[in-house]
Design goal:
By secondary structure, this protein is of the alpha/beta class. Helices cover 49% and strands 13% of the residues. The protein binds 1,4-dihydronicotinamide adenine dinucleotide and (2S)-3,4-dihydro-2H-pyrrole-2-carboxylic acid.
Length: 278
């Protein structure tokens, strides 16, 4: 499904690179199927060309963007400017895939001069190692074939769930931002390891396997998350001692509130009013 497609990334930041890196690593897409541009950082484009063997291009010099799939990977606040700058370079035969947090398919559709199929996606940076949890939803002009192409793109870098658009903000707060919460917890484990005398490399190996093991266990059991952590707690043991501190500081309540704030922020990012193309 991907062998006949070509991909142009508009935006060459962390997320674009994670997707490009993942695609190339899986070898389902060849480097010559991928091109990339950004706003102004030529050095970054040169590095991407060198590291991944892909091609970079300048929007100004290009009439129609030369790709069957165009991936919008700029910050949400740049969505309007970016779409304005490409709207005459896109045809209805090209699929526009956006990974921007909060930005709705209708908002993007209104900014184009024509009606290209638009697909909103929310991947995460684990794409780089082929393990993103991505959700996608289809805009009003996207056909099921367009959806299958987008699904194949993201399936090559992890799992894909197709959802109703109103669920995309929840996905963004949980899975888009999700790896950051886990890395923050890893950082806490690293701090504790250091304080307790573990070398950095020793701690790292233990922490990574602990995360891997917990994820695998979760995947292969019917037990709830509560049952799983209760299973680890011996009466008056070490885990219970740790949970006493977590509960004393209401860590879970605060964590839930933090994730709800991310979901709310995704909605806020989408609450921009753009000037529709006339
Ligand atoms: N970083 C992450 O973990 C995730 C990010 N996203 C979404 O991906 C998008 C990009 O995020 P990051 O890669 O983190 O941002 P970033 O700031 O690292 O990269 C943004 C890129 O867009 C380019 N850009 C801005 N305006 C442009 C224009 N008019 N034309 C061409 N290029 C333009 C910039 O030059 C830069 O290369 C955001 O909308 C974000 O919501 C989605 C899921 C996860
Ligand atoms: O922080 C952000 O806005 C982006 C969206 C999801 C992950 N990173």
């Amino acid at each position: 499904m991907l062998t006949n497609q070509t991909f142009a990334f508009i935006g060459a930041g962390a997320m674009a690179e994670a997707i490009i890196g993942g695609l190339i690593r899986k070898e389902l897409v060849q480097p010559d199927q991928i091109s990339v541009t950004n706003h102004s950082d030529k050095d970054k484009l040169l590095r991407l060309e060198k590291e991944y063997g892909i091609r970079s291009f300048q929007l100004k010099k290009t009439e129609v963007i030369n790709a069957s799939v165009i991936i919008l990977a700029m910050k949400p606040k740049h969505a309007e400017d970016a779409i304005h700058s490409i709207r005459h370079k896109v045809s209805n035969e090209q699929i526009v895939v956006s990974v921007m947090a909060g930005i709705s398919t209708m908002y993007m559709e209104n900014l184009f001069a024509i009606h290209p199929p638009v697909i909103r996606a929310m991947p995460n940076t684990s794409a780089k190692v082929g393990a993103s949890a991505t959700a996608i939803c289809l805009g009003s002009y996207a056909s099921s074939t367009d959806g299958r192409i987008a699904e194949a793109l993201f399936r090559s870098i992890g799992t894909v769930t197709e959802l109703a658009e109103e669920k995309m903000d929840a996905v963004t707060g949980i899975a888009g931002s999700g790896p950051a919460y886990l890395y923050y917890m890893v950082e806490a484990m690293e701090h504790a390891g250091r304080q307790a005398g573990l070398r950095e490399d020793e701690a790292k190996e233990l922490i990574i396997q602990t995360f891997f093991g917990a994820a695998l266990r979760l995947q292969h059991t019917e037990k709830t998350s509560k049952e799983l952590y209760k299973e680890i707690m011996s009466p008056a043991g070490t885990t219970e001692a740790a949970f006493d501190v977590l509960e004393q500081h209401q860590v879970q309540e605060h964590f839930t509130a933090a994730i709800m704030r991310a979901i709310e922020r995704s909605k806020e990012l989408g609450n921009t009013t753009a000037t529709p193309f006339k």
